[in-house]
Amino acid sequence: MRFFIALEIPEENKLELELLQKQIKALIPKSHPTNSEKLHLTVAFIGEQPEDFKQKLAEVLAQSVDGIKAFEVTPGYLDGFPTLHFPKVIWVGIKGDIDKLFILRERIKDGLVSLNLPSDERRFIPHIALIKVSNFQITPELEREFERITQKSFKPIKVSSIKLFESIPNHGLHQHNTLAEIKL
Known about the structure:
Layout: E1 2-8, H1 11-27, E2 32-33, E3 40-48, H2 53-64, E4 71-81, E5 89-96, H3 98-114, E6 127-132, H4 140-149, E7 157-159, E8 161-170, E9 173-183
Antiparallel strand pairs: 1-3, 1-8, 2-6, 4-5, 4-7, 5-6, 8-9
Helix pairs in contact: 1-4, 2-3
């Protein structure tokens, strides 16, 4: 099974993110928006593991949330991977009460290490992937447009649980199934 751990985006926030996707799509017509049903904030990507890891991973999540109460984060700015100027993915960065998110991430990484699973050592940048592009360069004018469209105030995203997902390949795309939800 291909596992990842993420925060699911509530429907009310998805509507705002869909509008943002449409604005970006209008600026970059050849872009490919992420399906709104798949919008999420990845906390840890685990990858292929035997199915029996499902319960162990759920236990790691349960231990990771100990003492962490529900909190809010807010979309705030656009950026891209690997860089904004030559992106393959355009994403919205998160601001607000992200300290709890970083604590969750570190606890989850520690739990994965305790299961002898590899831990992603790249710098954690809380984000929600919005758009895929290929062979594209962001111009200074487009960068200013990105700043303009993120000037609005976004509704805070209420984080009250963390989920273990399964990612199932499906004709070049992936279907996401919730395997466990741990409440904060």
